[in-house]
Design a protein that fits this description.
By secondary structure, the chain is α+β, with helices and mostly antiparallel strands. It contains 9 helices and 11 strands. A hairpin with a 3-residue loop joins strand 9 and strand 10.
């Protein structure tokens, strides 16, 4: 075995088998071995990443990275890409169009990777010569929105994904939390969240319907919940009315009905079936 073969073998071992074509097109910004991040609260993260600090953002799904600067934000970080190249990489991560969709990201700082979540929509003011018309937001555990002063559930779920903490969340989730995880997965079109909520086998059965949904709105108070208790099995049926935008149909009302079970009162809930009506 010559030295060149050894080097190639080593590279193949550290590069994820599911790395997307995006990453291959940007080798200089590609992290071949993306790890999970450390989940820390916003009150700690804001001091590690003070205003004016420049740092790197790594997209978990592709391994692509770009550089940013925190410019503002007291309840979460308002940041801007540093250069036009960084803007191009970020837009490439978002399939070359800006989006409010959340993505799980990792931020290297002081020898550790911090779990976070970003959106991909330029908004508000921007001051750098970077071709980015505004700034975008990065959230951490417990960070809140500026206007409503509460944590954004989609961002918070992406923080859990970045910290590889979804399994722990599911193990203690109530029916409402489990369903919310699924709805966020649909809204963000994120397979990792969807698999955590319903399992890979069931996701394969409903994937074609989920992929048709381009946008989704739902309200917490619209959940109609009926939980039945028996000596052996606890069953639940939850119906949710949503407003969805489906490919080829535009905006439409959509009803999702969830069948849930757990084998004992203290056991974890599982979504056994999702029915679209």
């Amino acid at each position: 075995m010559n030295k060149y073969f050894i080097i190639l073998l080593f590279i193949s071992l550290i590069t994820p088998t599911q790395a997307s074509a995006k990453a291959k097109n940007h080798p200089l910004t590609y992290y071949g071995a993306v790890q999970k991040g450390k989940i820390i609260p916003w009150k700690e993260a804001q001091h590690l990443l003070p205003k004016g600090k420049k740092f790197t953002v790594i997209d978990m799904d592709t391994g692509l990275s770009f550089n940013v600067q925190r410019r503002a934000g007291n309840k979460h970080a308002d940041v801007q890409p540093l250069t036009r190249t960084d803007t191009a990489v970020m837009k490439y991560i978002y399939d070359n169009h800006w989006s409010w969709n959340r993505k799980a990201v990792l931020i290297p700082v002081k020898g550790q990777l911090i779990a976070a979540s970003m959106n991909g929509m330029p908004h508000g003011a921007g001051a750098l010569d970077n071709g980015f018309p505004g700034h975008f937001c990065i959230h951490f555990l417990g960070s809140t929105t500026h206007k409503r002063n509460h944590a954004d559930p989609d961002h918070q779920m992406m923080v859990l994904k970045a910290g590889d903490n979804l399994e722990k969340f599911v193990s203690t989730a109530t029916p409402e939390q489990l369903i919310q995880l699924f709805l966020i997965g649909v809204k963000q079109q994120d397979e990792t969240l969807l698999k955590a909520a319903v399992g890979e086998k069931q996701l394969q059965q409903i994937y074609s319907k989920v992929k048709k949904i381009e946008a989704l709105n739902y309200k917490k108070e619209e959940i109609e919940e009926k939980i039945e208790n028996s000596p052996l099995v606890v069953k639940g049926k939850v119906k949710i009315l949503t407003i969805a935008v489906e490919k080829g149909k535009g905006q439409t009302s959509l009803s999702m009905e969830f069948d849930l079970e757990r084998s004992a009162v203290n056991d974890l809930w599982e979504i056994k079936q999702v029915n679209f009506k």
